[in-house]
Design a protein that fits this description.
The protein has 293 residues and is mostly helical. It has two domains: 28-182, Orthogonal Bundle (Tetracycline Repressor, domain 2), CATH 1.10.357.140; 184-293. Helices cover 70% and strands 0% of the residues. It has 14 helices and no strands. The longest helix is centred in the N-terminal third of the chain and has 25 residues, at 62-86. The radius of gyration is 20 Å and the shape is flat.
């Protein structure tokens, strides 16, 4: 049995086939994409890109933008690696994560730690050298919030969801300050939008997989919420708060009429999906809210 699994105190089936083979059919590159949560990191880069563009009203410096995206991608990927290092035990107990490279035994713990540390440090240094010190500092804050706070808190308190949303809301601010701006009202607006936007998304997926989360020992708002009333109600509250923030920002004059129309339409769709889930409280409506986010 692999050392990582022994340390976690888990007994799960060994990969079928000769020692060292990738019995599930996953390649090394595929495992690295899973280890770094490539799809999640892509979303992080999209929000970072938006933040950089909003921080560049006089024109975008494409070189600076590329430096910003590269550094942010490395830090985000490094945080994802350490998240999986710390959660390799619980991951082995959940169907949706059991085939990740660490719990499946296809990758050594030593490699994952070394790889994660290397890309985290390089990404932070890259941001500091080629963008701004504030951007690098925010990247470190994101990493610490996700790895050192959110990840261990998942087994202690349902407030972990709020902490996780904080780490997910910082990347657009990284992009904004990397463009040369400071922590002004727009920076906080971007943070607020991303923070509120994530909550219904998290609540929907937590409820959909609540039994697996409970079995793995994670403490979520969805625990014991078989009816879905609590999860759906909290989702609606955050959806309404997001609509209020985005529409309420209109009088500031920071955005165009196109933004106003978009905020109204998207806010209505978002709140409508949350209301629909609260009324029906089934997997179809929860999944719809999840995908809309």
């Amino acid at each position: 049995m692999k050392p990582a699994l022994k340390e976690a105190g888990l007994v799960i089936p060994e990969p079928v086939g000769a020692e060292g083979t990738r019995a599930s059919g996953a390649t090394v590159s595929q495992d690295l994409l899973v280890l770094t949560k490539a799809r999640l990191s892509t979303l992080v880069l999209i929000t970072t890109f938006v933040g950089f563009c909003l921080g560049s009203p006089g024109g975008i410096s494409w070189v600076a933008l590329l430096h910003c995206l590269l550094g942010t991608a490395l830090v985000a990927a490094g945080a994802a690696v350490f998240n999986q290092v710390l959660e390799r035990g619980p991951d082995a107990l959940m169907k949706r994560t059991v085939d990740r490279p660490l719990p499946a035994g296809r990758m050594s713990l030593r490699f994952a730690v070394g790889f994660g540390a290397a890309i985290s440090l390089v990404g932070t240094a890259w941001l500091g050298l080629f963008t701004t010190g504030l951007a690098a500092g925010l990247a470190v804050l994101t990493w610490l919030t996700y790895v050192a706070a959110y990840t261990p808190l998942k087994r202690l308190s349902s407030t972990c969801t709020l902490v996780g949303a904080v780490s997910g809301a910082i990347p657009p601010v990284i992009g904004y300050v990397a463009a040369g701006r400071g922590l002004d009202a727009m920076a906080w607006f971007l943070f607020g939008v991303l923070f509120l936007w994530q909550m219904p998304h998290f609540l929907a997926i937590n409820w959909l997989y609540r039994e697996e989360y409970e079995r793995a020992g994670f403490v979520m708002w969805s625990n014991g919420d078989a009816s879905g009333v609590r999860s759906a109600a909290i989702s609606l509250a955050f959806a309404l708060a997001l609509a209020g923030l985005t529409v309420g920002w209109v009088p500031s004059g920071a955005f165009t009429p196109v933004y106003t129309a978009g905020a109204l339409v998207l806010g209505a769709v978002w709140c409508g999906a949350a209301i629909h889930w609260l009324i029906r409280r089934d997997r179809v409506r929860a999944r719809l809210l999840f995908f809309l986010s």
